[in-house]
Description:
It is a single chain. The protein is an alpha/beta fold. The chain has 2 domains: 8-141, Four Helix Bundle (Hemerythrin (Met), subunit A) (Up-down Bundle), CATH 1.20.120.50; 158-279, 3-Layer(aba) Sandwich (Rossmann fold), CATH 3.40.50.2300. The chain is built from 11 helices and 7 strands. The strands form 2 sheets. A 5-stranded parallel β-sheet has the order 4-3-5-6-7, sandwiched between helices. Strands 1-2 form a two-stranded antiparallel sheet. It is globular and about 60 Å long.
Amino acid sequence: MPPIEWTKDLAVGIPFVDGDHQALVSLLNLVETCIDAREETFVLGSLLNGLADYTEYHFSREEKLQQVCGYAGLQEHKTIHRRLAGEVDAIGRRFETDPSSVETGEVKEFLRNWLVEHIMVHDFAYRQACVGHEQGAAAGEAIKLANGGVVQSNVLQLDRLRILVIDDNPNFLRLVATVLKAAGIRRVHTAGSAMKGLEWSIRQTADVVLCDWLMRDMNGVDFALKMAEMELPSRVVLMSGCSADSFREQNVGSGVEGFLEKPISAGSLLNAVLNTPSGAA
């Protein structure tokens, strides 16, 4: 099945809404790629978690826009949002409990139908009331995905952060980069190995480095120690399928300043970035 392509026919005409929709298209296409490739459970689980979080985030922004614009169909739109968010969340919970219980065809069909139908039917319905409404757009854009949830803030300067993501799984790398950029962190750089991450860090400086623990060329702890030896200022957050508590106990003094347990969610990812000292906005 070919990937969903973003075209002008799907554009609502409100920049932040269209940006959110493009991010959702990227996430849905990545879900399909991982399903077709029989990707590792933690990657697909992370994708479904990220999709659920980003869906709630996008719906919150859309609803704030409609509220400020005085859109008459707001309550009906909220009802549709709650139903769709519940269905996305249910798929993720089923997968978490028993991955084999989630039929790949079912997921792909639901996600495609949901996205295209919701945009072209329900979202197009509010265009007349909301397109060109500057206060409404500003209110929607002020909704941020941060610290494990959705918050309204004009203070968080996510676009000022620079993040380096290191992982030798290309699909997981794409997921993390997509979620960070969709949440408003524009300067996201990726590396497919610890050595490439070190080479990049010698030339440039990231506020936070998100690094996988188990990689073929160098593990994440050794990477953090190497960063400390070279006196490179970036803060290192390790990503691992191991328990964060047990891993933290085993690696005191390693130079690691944060831990992110896989499968990740969009909320836990942003929480790890923003709660690392140099990542605080």
